[in-house]
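This protein record is not my work; I was only asked to verify it. Take the sequence as given and treat only the tokens as open to question. I have pasted the whole thing underneath without changing anything:
***
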Amino acid sequence: MPLVMLEPTLIYLVVFTIGLVLERSGVTWSQTTMVNRRNYDSSVNVTAVIEQLLTGYDNRLRPNFGGPHLPVDMEVEIASFDTISEVNMDYTLTLYLTQYWVDTRLRYDYFFEAPGDFMTLPGDFAERIWVPDTFFANDKNSFLHEVTEENKRVRLYGNGSIEYGMRFTTTLACMMDLHNYPLDTQNCTVEIESYGYTMSDVEIFWKKERDSVKGVYNVQLPQFDIMNFDTQVTVESLSTGDYKRLSLSFKMARNIGYFIFQTYLPSILIVMLSWVSFWINHEATSARVALGITTVLTMTTISTGVRSSLPRISYVKAIDIYLVMCFVFVFAALLEYAAVNYTYWGARAKKKTKKYKENHSFAKSSETVFMNDNEKDEQRMSPIPSLRHRQNTALSESDKVTPGFRMISPGHRCGYTGRTIQTTRAQQRRRLLQNLKTRARKIRSSIPKIKDVNIIDKYSRLVFPLSFIGFNGIYWCYYLL
């Protein structure tokens, strides 16, 4: 009986001694248990297990070869939007693409239990196993990042599940509609598809529908704001079969701030500068002409700079309409001075011509009257009787001539009408020209005559700004609302 009582005491004493020793050494029970487990896991030859899994493994055959199709799930994380080019109709982005599928040939959970339930293997391991032949249907150029190592990873789970990820930069085609440029919104897509496997062999899916895409709202673009994104699944029917395609579309609105300060605001200021000529005296020809030509050339330079950053498309863009109208306003201001100058100097020239004609006609008429009086006096006072008799007989014969007496040519008596037809045609032409001249005179008479050319400038100071404000109101309401 005493020996039986001593056995528990000895056991407790031994346990207490061991605990005291472990406490002084700084090691806990949980740590000893973890060490034992790690020692147990590390005792397994993982390299031998992997080599055993790959023994007889054919990476040319998909999992479940000859059986049902293999589902492959996709996840995309956007790292950055690099560039968006309207000239080349494409955009560049860097992304992480992760693919998930199950290959039971690589199942290792009956050999050992890996820490964390998976093994992380380098990217070159993907060359020894089967991987999906995924490609981007609208890809122009892509490259895989290799600094400091090739940016690929493979995670192998115990049940044969595989997680295959990579980081790369791709340039994708995006056919943009530039009718409303630069007040436009664009819709660019990422098209993911299997290149060789039809839906009977491999079928791709978004892993979590819309949640499969991450990092969209974290990226920033210099000229665009990402308004929304959406995921779609479509089927592409080709001559080689039906293929499943995953689409990721971005709806992007262009930031107008850059164009306000680079295009719209300078154009508005140039148009307003052309109005300064309305306050300059119309006799300052050099100043007004120089100002008008300068504004026209400046608008031409702005238009050329805008078109150089855009593709050569046939349809009219919103910015083209604005620049053309600004050019029209600037050119109209230059033509306004031409009208003022023509009216002013034309009126002066008419006055000088009229005054010259009046003076010249008065001098000529007075000279003619003086000469006629002198001739009559000479004839009346002439000592030669024949001259006096000639004047009297001329007056008597003129009184004897009968007004109704006419000479009839033999041609008329015979019915000859060729010359008459030509005469009638010439008369019709003369009548037509006379009618046109009469109408032109009526139109000229209906136009109010401008006595003071400064009135044109006064009306222009009001008409030009109001017209430009009205155009801007219509333009911005149409494209923004």
User: Anything to note?
Assistant: The chain is about 45% helix and 20% strand. Residues 318-380 form the longest helix (63 residues). The radius of gyration is 51 Å.
